[in-house]
Amino acid sequence: MNDPYRLPKSVKPLHYALTVKTDLDGLNFEGHVAIDLDILEETSTIVFNVADLDLDQVSLHSEALKTEQIQIAEQSFDKDLDRCTVQVATPLPAKSKAQLRVAFKAQLTNKMTGYYYSHTEIDGKKVYYTLTQFEPTDARKAFPCWDEPALKATYDITMISREGTVNLSNMPAISEKPLSNSNEYDDSVGKLTKMFAKLKTESSEGGWKITKFETTPLISSYLVAYANGPFEYIEDSYTSPISGKVRPVRMYATKEIIDQTKFALDVNVRCLPLYESVFNVEFPLPKLDTLVAHDFDAGAMENWGLITGRTTAYLIDE
Given CA atoms 218, 223, 229, 233 in this order, what sign does their dihedral have? Predict the structure, then answer.
């Protein structure tokens, strides 16, 4: 018997190709996600989590049915359970693969859940930036997903943002280019940039850029993280006592407080090799960043590769 408070077990996510465009001027975001699915049991319904997002261009593609797009018979929302149900005209066969594609958009809020904005004052000017807080069940406020810890998947995250800002995520950035050079990316990103074609003609203090990050390991949705803003950083590194690898460790913050993050950086660099020695487990990611935020509900959040936390937990004026 299925638990009514858990998503159906007939479908399992395998991989997310997630693109998020952040507009700090308009305090809104939009994006597109393509989710590779493992169809475990024959089904005519795809049920996933979503909350506070406007969805558009929902489509489903099946390898077994060999169709570019399956006809969607019905689409419904359950706001109490934060779910969207997509009913397809042709059942998806068991032990097959499919892909769900969804475009989405929403306003950024300061509620400190999902993908939200924080702000500070620099040189007498109010400055905005964004970050995520997905634990326990708020990834669904940032992008459509299977938002349960057991349903781990890998993620390819791409961020579109204003030039002059910094994009951060769980993994290191592998490329960053102006939007005008988007045709140099693979076909999937090239198609996505057409959704945001108007960006090329918008007037602002700067243009737009695209940042792509390395693929994550298998990870729960609540540990996915990304941020965008006028961040600065200080950096150190540590050498793994297990493998001898040297990993960069950074503290990110806005300009007026970055100098107060030196003590936290020193603690991170000292603790990581100690943890590896005590537990005989090497830190599994290629880097560790920490972002210090002015508006943050908890003390800190253990996002894999991109820890986030409040100023009162991290800053020391030495």
Answer: negative
Distance of CA 235 to the CA centre of its chain: 23
H or E element, residue 161: strand 154-162
Centre a 10 Å sphere on the Cβ of residue 96 and count the other Cβ atoms it contains.
Answer: 15
Measured distance between the N- and C-terminal CA atoms of the chain, rounded to whole angstroms: 58
Cα separation, 145 vs 160, whole angstroms: 20
Q: Which of 163, 129, 141 has its CA nearest to residue 24? A: 129
In angstroms, the Cα distances linking 192 to 33, 154, 257 are: 10, 20, 36
CA distance 30 to 96: 30
| CA distances in angstroms from 231 to 108, 128, 129, 252, 268, listed in the order given | 18, 11, 8, 6, 19
At residue 184, does pLDDT exceed 50? Answer: no
pLDDT at 63 exceeding the cut of 90: no
| Paired strand residues for 125 | 122
pTM: 0.93
Alpha-carbon distance of 309 to 312, in angstroms, equals 8
* CB atoms closer than 10 angstroms to residue 19: 25
CA distance 58 to 71: 10
Alpha-carbon distance 210 to 126, whole Å? 25
What's the average model confidence in pLDDT over 88-101?
93
In this structure, are residues 72 and 87 in contact, taking their beta carbons and an 8 Å threshold?
yes
Q: Are 13 and 46 in contact (CB under 8 A)?
A: no
Does residue 30 sit in helix, strand or coil?
Answer: strand
Span 273-302, pLDDT tens digits: 999 999 999 999 999 999 999 999 888 999
**Token digits for 109?**
């809020």
